[in-house]
Amino acid sequence: LEDVGIGSVRQQVVNLVREALATTVPDVEDIEPQVAVCGNPKNGDYQCNNAMGIWSKIKGKNTSFKNPNAIGQALAGSLPRSSLTDSVSVAGPGFVNIKLSDRWIEKKLHQLLSHGVGEWAPALSYKRVVVDFSSPNIAKEMHVGHLRSTIIGDSLCRMLEYCGVEVLRRNHVGDWGTQFGMLIEYLFEEFPNWEEIGDQAVGDLQDFYKKAKIKFDVDAAFKEKAQKAVVLLQGGNPQYRAAWAKICDVSRKSFDQVYKRLKVTLEEKGESAYNEYIPGVVEELKGKGLVEDSEGAKVIKVSGQTIPLILVKSDGGFNYASTDMTAMWYRLNEEKAEVMVYVTDVGQSQHFDMVFKAAKRAGWLPEDESQLPRARHVGFGLVLGADGKRFRTRSTEVVRLVDLLDEAKDRSKQGLVERGREGEWSAEELEEAAEALGYGAIKYADLKNNRLTNYTFNFDQMLDIRGNTAVYLLYAHARICSIIRKSEKNVEELKKTGQMKLQHPSERALGLQLIRFGEFVEDAASDLLPNVLCEYLYTLSGMFTDFYTNCKVVGSEEETSRLLLCEATAVIMRECFKLLGIEPLYRL
Ligand code: ARG
């Protein structure tokens, strides 16, 4: 296999265009290659749009070019010779259209089959990223908002990891704050033997929280005790520390259940972890002259906001913002993050806007957001119920995440039983498939929408085998695997000896979509939009259907080539599933 290069296909085209720019207009500064997919596939596969921009820079100056089209012609003429290109043409005001060669597409697909998808990973401009996601609050419910954060955050981590980025997956749990005073005192009162009791005895922590809160609101003596408890805890009193740790531990175990089911890994570094650094950070910010007094509080003013960021409360205590400023300081200085990503609902946009602006004022982040280090808030919309309101269930006001996962799995299992899989498969296989379908459905239903929009939680829709669902896609993948099995050919052998030949237009279209995998990941990862990858996968699946409708595979003359194309499709579908956090199924 001759070297067909690495990175995304678009990056490979960009490299050619960069060379052409350097030879065509060596004296024009600051021109970045502008490469896009051809608007009209008849013209080619990619187009370079630089000619018009260059023209506006050089027209009227002493130049040999008469118009933008002439620049386009010159660029086309100086594109380095490469096995990548089949033909180059210039259209309209200077668009340079590039058609990839079929042979090159075939070679790229062979590269995938023999070396794996790693060679296609796009190069990003940063190497170390903190992704702050999931981040539920101790003793409070982990609600659907946290589920969204967990699913979206995990997928973004997976994409960045695929691109070779070192990702610090951070669970910024709310494990600090004044609510712990009442929780600890309530623990002491209700469970005098709290040190010995098991976690189950504390029971449902949400319920525990509610009861503690009620007592706090009605019982003045308890309230006073709780307030003193906060001081004792923050002062490091061992008994209060131990009680705090106990409460955190109970919560942590219930969060971990959800992560385990969803196969999400995270490293907890909760709010408490930054506490010891807050005074130092406040001093640093004061030293920079950023901190002002406002009604007893210490604040930082930021542009475009009517309220300032409150760094120290009027009672001298620290809050959510103090912790986030400090966590950012820590991530930049101790963890050497180049990019920091925060995945929360859009309701927190204002908070992060203020934190980021304060960090710019402090000189921690550059004003120019194209430079590193960089902070990005990945906001997402609400999950709605059938009534169009915030998602809740009838019995309880909050939806328990484990119940949602259970229901998705149960319904999927039911579907498999109806299809007669119960007798055919082992109980274990049935269980595994039900989980892959059920959890995959929940994840995909969340990821496929632009994260900023609200979406309606609907089991029937997300578990539908037709339509843009994980279930449909998992079936599509399993069908491809069964085509390969039916051929009774050894694919591993075919990969070594077989030859791929793209002949039918639908074969070429499928092949092209496959090799473009890397650039979709590139877009999804740089814009932090998992739905971009979902759309890619759904389109890919449609293209496979076109191919399979038009081209006979098993028993045809082109069987070997077409089986390889099937295999390449299955490989890429599995890669997409992996980046979306979905388990593939090989038969269904
Ligand atoms: N615990 C917060 C919540 O439940 C989310 C924390 C997000 N991360 C952060 N660094 N503020 O709303």
Automatic annotation (TrEMBL):
<comment type="similarity">
    <text>Belongs to the class-I aminoacyl-tRNA synthetase family.</text>
</comment>
<keyword id="KW-0030">Aminoacyl-tRNA synthetase</keyword>
<dbReference type="GO" id="GO:0004814">
    <property type="term" value="F:arginine-tRNA ligase activity"/>
</dbReference>
<keyword id="KW-0436">Ligase</keyword>
<dbReference type="GO" id="GO:0006420">
    <property type="term" value="P:arginyl-tRNA aminoacylation"/>
</dbReference>
<dbReference type="GO" id="GO:0048608">
    <property type="term" value="P:reproductive structure development"/>
</dbReference>
<feature type="domain" description="DALR anticodon binding">
    <location>
        <begin position="473"/>
        <end position="588"/>
    </location>
</feature>
<dbReference type="GO" id="GO:0005524">
    <property type="term" value="F:ATP binding"/>
</dbReference>
<feature type="domain" description="Arginyl tRNA synthetase N-terminal">
    <location>
        <begin position="11"/>
        <end position="100"/>
    </location>
</feature>
<dbReference type="GO" id="GO:0009791">
    <property type="term" value="P:post-embryonic development"/>
</dbReference>
<keyword id="KW-0648">Protein biosynthesis</keyword>
<protein>
    <recommendedName>
        <fullName>arginine--tRNA ligase</fullName>
        <ecNumber>6.1.1.19</ecNumber>
    </recommendedName>
</protein>
<comment type="function">
    <text>Forms part of a macromolecular complex that catalyzes the attachment of specific amino acids to cognate tRNAs during protein synthesis.</text>
</comment>
<keyword id="KW-0547">Nucleotide-binding</keyword>
<dbReference type="GO" id="GO:0005737">
    <property type="term" value="C:cytoplasm"/>
</dbReference>
<keyword id="KW-0067">ATP-binding</keyword>
<keyword id="KW-0007">Acetylation</keyword>
